[in-house]
C-alpha cells in the first residue's frame, strides 16, 4: 500500500518537474546506504565468509556524507529530514550481506525488545513492512466482506478508512471540532451494534493536533466494548508529552485496542519500511498472519533494534522537529492564514486560500514540493512538513511569495 501522498491523485511529477531532476532526487534519497559507503565496509568479504576481524581490517576509511540534491525541497511526505540513528546505519551496513535470508529470528528478537519496552508479552506484538500494511489489513478485516462499519473522523489518515471502504464497509466520518481536532464525543455518538471498529490517529494527520489523553482513554475503553478501537500513534514520539499520551496501557489492561507505530517518522526509516502493532494475543496473531506475508524487511528489523537501543536518539530528534514545526507555524500565522493550532507532529495544516492543487503548482514553481491533494471539506487547506534548513528557507520564501 503506497503512501497516500504518492498516489496518482497528487500532481504528477511529469507535469511539474523535468525528468532529470526527479531521477536525481530519487537516486539521492534511495542511495543513502550506498552513499554511506555500503560497498566499502567489507560486504563482499562478509558474503565470502571472512571473519569480523578480517572484515574490519579490510574496511575502507569512513564513508563520505552523501551528496544532497537541492534541486527540489520535498516537504509533502512527512519523512524525517534528519535521517536515522547512526547506530541504525552501522547495523544495516554490518548486516547487509545477510539479506538473502529471511529475518524470522531477528523479528522475534525485535518483538521481545518492543514487548519489554511497552510492558506487554511478545505474542502481543506483530511486525510489518511499515505501518501501511497494518492499516490496510485491519481495514479489510473489519470490513467483514461488506457487512462492517468503521467510525472515524474526516480529515484523518486514510489508511484504515480507504481500505475498509474498498472492501465494502460503511464509513461514518464525523466532523472536526471548531479548533480542527478529532471530535471523540461525536464519534462515540455514532458507535452502534453495527460498528466493527473505530479509528483514531493521534497526533492526527493532516491536522497535527491531539485529543485529550483522558478523553481518548475513556473513549477507547467504551468503544472497545463494541468493537476494536484502533489508535494510530505514528507521530506520537514527536509530541511534547509522549508519556502522558501513550495508550499502550489500554492493551496491557486487556481492552480490545490496537496500537500502531512506525519507524518511518522520528526514527528516519521511511524508505526502509518497518512498523509494528500491539494488541491482545488473539487479535495480534490474526493481524500478524495478515501483515507478515512472506516476511518482514531484514534491514528494517536490524535498524529498528539498533534505533530502540540508541537511547539518546529520540530525545535528540524531538527538539529538532519541534523547532521546525514552530517555525512553519509562525510563518503561516504571520501571513494571516487560518491554521490548526498546537501542532504536535512533523507538519502544520492551514488554509492557503486557493485549491490545494493550485497552491502545490505555485509552490513547485518555486522549487518546493508539497501535498497536491485535499481532504474532504478542506479543499483549500494543505499540510507542510518539517524539512532540512535549506528546505525550510526555500519553503518560507515560497510561502511569502505565493500567499502574499
Give the tags.
alpha/beta, Aspartate Aminotransferase, domain 2, 18 helices, 11 strands
Distance between the termini: 37 Å
Q: Please name the fourth-level CATH homologous superfamily of the domain at 96-309.
A: Type I PLP-dependent aspartate aminotransferase-like (Major domain)
What is the molecular shape? Answer: globular
Helix content: 40-55%
Strand portion, in percent? 5-15%
CATH level-two architecture of the domain at 96-309: 3-Layer(aba) Sandwich
Mean pLDDT: 87
Count helical runs.
Answer: 18
Strands of the biggest beta sheet: in what spatial order? Answer: 2-8-7-6-5-3-4
Please mark out the parts with pLDDT under 50 across 5 or more consecutive residues, or reply none.
6-61
Q: The CATH topology of the domain at 96-309 is what?
A: Aspartate Aminotransferase, domain 2
* CATH class annotation of the domain at 96-309: Alpha Beta
Q: Please state the CA-atom Rg, rounded to the nearest Å.
A: 21 Å
Structural class: alpha/beta
Can you tell me about this structure?
- This protein has helices spanning about 15, 20-30, 30-35, 45, 50-60, 85-95, 105-120, 130-145, 160-165, 185-190, 215-225, 240-245, 250, 280-290, 300-310, 315-335, 355-365, 390-400; strands at about 75, 125-130, 150-155, 170-175, 195-200, 230, 255-260, 275-280, 345-350, 370, 380-385.
- It has 18 helices and eleven strands.
- The strands form three sheets. It has a seven-stranded mixed beta sheet with strand order 2-8-7-6-5-3-4, sandwiched between helices.
- About 45% of the residues are buried.
- It has a domain at about 95-310: 3-Layer(aba) Sandwich (Aspartate Aminotransferase, domain 2), CATH 3.40.640.
- The chain is about 45% helix and about 10% strand.
- The chain is of the alpha/beta class and about 400 residues long.
- It is globular.
- The two termini are about 35 Å apart.
Amino acid at each position: 500500500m503506497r503512501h497516500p501522498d504518492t498516489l496518482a491523485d497528487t500532481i504528477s511529477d511529469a507535469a511539474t518537474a523535468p525528468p532529470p531532476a526527479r531521477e536525481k532526487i530519487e537516486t539521492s534519497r534511495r542511495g543513502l546506504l550506498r552513499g554511506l559507503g555500503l560497498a566499502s565496509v567489507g560486504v563482499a568479504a562478509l558474503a565470502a565468509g571472512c571473519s569480523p576481524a578480517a572484515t574490519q581490517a579490510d574496511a575502507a576509511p569512513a564513508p563520505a556524507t552523501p551528496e544532497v540534491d537541492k534541486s527540489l525541497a520535498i516537504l509533502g511526505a512527512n519523512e524525517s529530514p534528519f535521517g536515522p540513528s547512526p547506530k541504525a546505519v552501522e547495523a544495516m551496513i554490518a548486516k547487509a550481506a545477510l539479506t538473502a535470508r529471511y529475518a524470522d529470528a531477528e523479528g522475534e528478537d525485535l518483538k521481545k525488545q518492543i514487548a519489554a519496552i511497552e510492558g506487554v508479552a511478545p505474542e502481543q506484538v506483530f511486525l510489518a513492512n511499515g505501518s501501511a500494511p497494518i492499516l490496510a489489513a485491519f481495514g479489510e478485516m473489519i470490513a467483514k466482506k461488506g457487512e462492517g462499519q468503521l467510525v472515524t473522523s474526516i480529515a484523518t489518515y486514510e489508511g484504515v478508512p480507504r481500505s475498509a471502504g474498498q472492501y465494502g464497509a460503511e464509513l461514518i466520518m464525523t466532523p472536526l471540532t471548531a479548533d480542527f481536532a478529532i471530535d471523540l464525543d461525536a464519534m462515540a455518538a455514532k458507535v452502534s451494534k453495527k460498528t466493527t471498529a473505530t479509528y483514531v490517529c493521534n497526533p492526527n494527520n493532516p491536522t497535527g493536533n491531539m485529543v485529550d489523553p483522558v478523553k481518548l482513554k475513556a473513549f477507547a475503553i467504551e468503544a472497545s466494548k463494541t468493537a476494536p478501537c484502533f489508535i494510530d500513534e505514528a507521530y506520537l514520539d514527536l509530541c511534547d508529552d509522549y508519556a502522558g499520551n501513550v495508550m499502550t496501557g489500554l492493551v496491557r489492561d486487556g481492552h480490545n485496542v490496537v496500537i500502531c507505530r512506525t519507524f518511518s517518522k522520528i526514527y528516519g526509516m521511511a524508505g526502509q519500511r518497518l512498523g509494528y502493532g500491539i494488541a491482545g494475543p488473539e487479535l495480534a496473531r490474526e493481524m500478524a498472519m495478515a501483515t507478515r506475508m512472506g516476511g518482514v524487511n531484514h534491514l528494517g528489523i536490524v535498524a529498528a533494534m539498533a534505533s530502540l537501543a540508541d537511547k539518546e536518539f529520540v530525545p535528540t530528534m524531538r527538539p529538532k522537529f519541534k523547532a521546525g514545526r514552530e517555525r512553519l507555524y509562525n510563518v503561516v500565522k504571520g501571513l494571516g492564514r487560518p491554521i490548526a493550532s498546537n501542532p504536535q507532529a512533523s507538519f502544520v495544516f492551514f488554509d492557503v486560500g486557493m485549491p490545494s492543487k493550485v497552491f502545490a503548482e505555485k509552490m513547485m514553481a518555486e522549487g518546493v514540493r508539497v501535498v497536491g491533494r485535499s481532504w474532504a471539506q478542506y479543499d483549500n487547506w494543505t499540510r507542510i512538513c518539517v524539512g532540512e534548513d535549506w528546505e525550510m528557507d526555500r519553503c518560507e520564501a515560497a510561502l511569502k511569495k505565493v500567499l502574499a
